[in-house]
Amino acid sequence: MRDQASVLEDVRQGMIPAHIYNDDEIFALEKERVFGRAWMFLAHESEIPHAGDYVVRRVVDDSFIVSRDESGAVRAMFNMCLHRGMQVCRAEMGNASHFRCPYHGWSYKNDGRLVGLPFHGEAYGGEEGFRKKGQTLLPAPSLDTYNGLIFVSLDPAAPPLREYLGDFAFYLDFYTQQSAEGIELVGPQRWRVKANWKIGAENFAGDSYHTPHTHSSVVEIGLFREPKASKRKEGALYWAGRGGGTTYKLPPGTLDERLRYVGYPDEMIARMRATWSDAHLAMVGDDGFMVSAASAFPNLSLVHNWPKVEDTESDDVTPFISLRQWQPVSADETEVLSWFAVDRNAPQRFKELSYKAYLMCFGSTGMFEQDDVENWVSITSTAAGSMARRLRLNSRMGLLADDKPVSPPLAHFSGPGVAYVGFGEYNQRAMLRHWADALEAPPPEEGTVDLGGTS
Amino acid sequence: MTAPASRTIARCLPFGDPRHLEAHQFLVDEAALLDTQDYDTWMSLLTADIRYVMPVRVSTARGAGFDTAPGMAHFDEDHYSLSRRVARFATEHAWTEDPPSRLRHHVSNVRTFPLDHTDDEVVVESAVLLFRSRGDVREPSLISAGREDVLRRDPTRGAPSAGHWMLARRTVSVDESVLRTQNLAIFL
Question: Which residue windows are transmembrane per the record (chain A) (predicted)?
Fold first, then answer.
């Protein structure tokens, strides 16, 4: 394996060796050191509301059953039978009290406990030969939730999720806690793109610069007021803890006027007022910044925007929220999982229009997403060759040659972290600094689990 | 997707029935428009109350009673949203289809079913296999789907299309849960 030290050094300078977007050796390291340790989003609690509900999701190559057991607890269990390794659940979602392996019939309760083992006495000599009691499908080494978002880490020594997210959690609240009851997550749409996973994560973290050009067509067709270059560069870019994002600057007005401008009905605004902290309210109401795209390291992204979704004379817009994961398949392929999120307490009519807004803009058919992916596929295939090893991509926007910022960070910004106004690749660099740190750190201990039966 | 009882084999129009022949021709003519991305003409074949839906398919246990993701679709369109998509392709900045994909919609397995309550609508089932090739480096992609359409005779008196079949409903049942194409900047 090549020595990656010079690659990481270049990345930290904001000069990105182009091959990192399509390099099998880098990907092998990422699997071990990024995805083998980071907190990875799997599902939202609203996807499995009832006892027995489950979805099957992956962390790169590892399949997990995310279920709600009979006591109401959320579980994430490695989807591999303890006996011969068959997947005990081959559906993507459903409701089950038990999972029975199709190979030899071992069966597990929806909390993972091994409860059925055919011919236990005759074949194994009962408990003396194979201790069935206490055996479970392997649980994810670490599991934690934030605002109902279920994450797992393959590192048993992972810090608590809230600590890992750091102050990015504040920004997650805008997307996932617009009322005390939080969101419903619907979907996902899933599709595979021949693009490296990092490109989407970086783009959502801070690339306000691409919006006016890549997405000019959606403004031309009258869907949007916002993504004009002049509007986009007035927004703040923030980085806090393990994530960062982009915002739009809203027109002058009170908090309520600004939330109405984005398309929120008054009853939802009242719940935001009752739920959000003073700092949240100040960021919108006083500073006038509304969250748009964002990413949390490594591969979870969010987006919030407000298109016109009905054929009327009025300029009315409807906001939508999408949450998505860039699930790596290989160095040059990513499965996109794209969900629609909406506040559980939103009026039904709002939910319908917001869903429509999501479909028109993001996801497998989204008019923004269509052009993004075209770019990312092209970058990835071009990054595979020899010339890409000679090219360091300039990701220094916002920095002068002596590393001082082109313009200083905002002196007053109500959210946590560091924020800049104007175009700059601060967040993409922050994302890749976390990436470089992860690649440099030794891999976490894997450990094994004793299944009993032998000593 | 299980067809309702109204569309049993016994109800299927004979392949020599004029309504079947017209429906079949509609689908083949439409495929030529979709292959060449002649979307303005395509839109003229859609009724004002068009519903164009492509649910997200999911793998579920046999007997689960559903095989689509609850509340989620790839397409869930009305005339306005389709018109925006088509208008976008007509701008000079819809990069994803410039250069355009080479498209071939292979349409087969066409069956036509009459409706009891009207002679001005028929239900048409078909299979479609879309071959999509972009550029000169990438692997092509395939999308296989079943379609269930409602065709309606245009009731607009005096219109050039009066009496011609138009597409009023389409449900596309795609045959993959995870699509192997970079986006759905195409129609099925």
Answer: none
